[in-house]
Amino acid sequence: MIAHLIGKLIYKSPDHSIVDVNGIGYKIFTPLSTYYVLPKTGESVTLHIHTRVREDELKLFGFLTEEEQTIFEKLITINKVGPKLALGILSGMSPENLLTAIMSNDAARLSAIPGVGKKTAERLTLEMKDKLSDLTFVMEHQQETEVPEGPYEDALSALVNLGYKKPQAEKSLKSAYNKIGKDGSLEDLIKESLNNL
Hints:
Number of domains: 3
CATH architecture of the largest domain: Orthogonal Bundle
Number of strands: 5
CATH topology of the largest domain: DNA polymerase, domain 1
């Protein structure tokens, strides 16, 4: 069972990537949230892997964070939610927003994700709540320590206006914020974030 891969990214698309590990190319299906923050082709990448084995197929699903992998693995335990739909759900909403929607029984918000109908959304809010309760606590704790104030939102807006994808910009900006601290200026934040990107 493959659980983790480190190798050279030789191909990436919104649907899947190919990672070369010692001369063997692994085709890995990823959600958009992972695709947006993948490095450039030719660079090294580390992915958490869920291996799905069926009678007629073996598929690898890759995630940059353990949280995404955990959510994916819990999603596919829900009746009528297969890997393709689980990836679609993770692509349509950030893990934080997904957890918020599930915990607040917001089926309307979930059914706005392409491929998720009203019945599936209701099933998700009903069945996923208990499965994700531990993860919710972890992510709330992370948000308490990581969500910055001040020029953060302006810097994020500037990066998005420069053409960077929001998940990629947020990740880079959080790293810059943690390095500079809350007293850093808007200009410092943007400069440091661009260095990260």
